[in-house]
UniProtKB/TrEMBL annotation:
SMART domains: OmpH (SM00935). Pfam families: OmpH (PF03938). Transmembrane segments: none annotated. It comes from Vitreoscilla massiliensis. The lineage of its organism: Bacteria, Pseudomonadati, Pseudomonadota, Betaproteobacteria, Neisseriales. This is OmpH family outer membrane protein. InterPro entries: Chaperone_Skp, Skp_dom_sf. Residues 1-23 form the signal peptide. Belongs to the Skp family.
Length: 166
C-alpha cells in the first residue's frame, strides 16, 4: 500500500511538472491584417503599378468595347432604326459582346496569374519581416486572418513600416 501511494505521488508530481512546462502562458500576442498589408505597403503599391502598366492596354480595350456596346444598346433601344438596320446593329452588338467576353476572360485569367505570382513573392518578404518583428519585440504568438481582434494586438502598421524600410 505504501509503495502504491509513493508511486502515485511521484506520478502526480511528474505529471504536474510536465503540464506546467507545456502550459506556459502566452505573454505577448500580435495580429496582422494581411489585406491591409496587401493594400498599403510600398511593395503592394509597386506591384499594382506594374500590373497596371502591363495590362493597361487590355483594360483600355475592354473599356472601349464596353462603351461601344452601351452606345449601340442605346441606339437599339431607341427604336429609331429601320428593320434592316436594326438587324445589322444587333449582329454588330453580338460581335462586340463576343469579342468583349473573350478578351475579358483572357485578361482576367492572365492578370490573376501575374498578380498571384507577384503577391507570392511579397508574402515571403512579409513573412520574413514578421519573423524579424516577432524576434525583436519578443512576441509569443502572431496571428493572421481572424474574425475579431482588439486593436491593441494589431501590429499591421509595424509590419508595413519594416517592409517599407527593407
Amino acid at each position: 500500500m505504501r509503495s502504491w501511494l509513493m508511486a502515485t505521488g511521484m506520478t502526480v508530481a511528474l505529471m504536474a511538472s510536465t503540464a506546467s512546462a507545456w502550459a506556459e502562458p502566452v505573454q505577448k500576442i500580435g495580429f496582422v491584417n494581411t489585406d491591409k498589408v496587401y493594400r498599403e505597403s510600398k511593395d503592394a503599391q509597386s506591384i499594382n503599378k506594374t500590373l497596371e502598366k502591363e495590362f493597361g492596354s487590355q483594360f483600355k480595350q475592354l473599356r472601349k468595347l464596353e462603351k461601344q456596346g452601351i452606345e449601340l444598346q442605346k441606339l437599339l433601344l431607341s427604336n429609331k432604326l429601320p428593320p434592316a438596320e436594326q438587324k445589322n446593329q444587333q449582329e454588330r452588338m453580338a460581335k462586340i459582346n463576343k469579342e468583349y467576353l473573350a478578351l475579358k476572360s483572357a485578361t482576367d485569367e492572365e492578370y490573376s496569374l501575374r498578380r498571384n505570382e507577384e503577391f507570392a513573392s511579397m508574402q515571403q518578404k512579409a513573412n520574413q519581416a514578421l519573423i524579424e518583428l516577432a524576434k525583436a519585440e519578443h512576441y509569443d504568438v502572431i496571428v493572421k486572418d481572424v474574425v475579431y481582434v482588439r486593436s491593441e494586438f494589431d501590429i499591421t502598421d509595424k509590419l508595413i513600416q519594416i517592409m517599407n524600410r527593407n
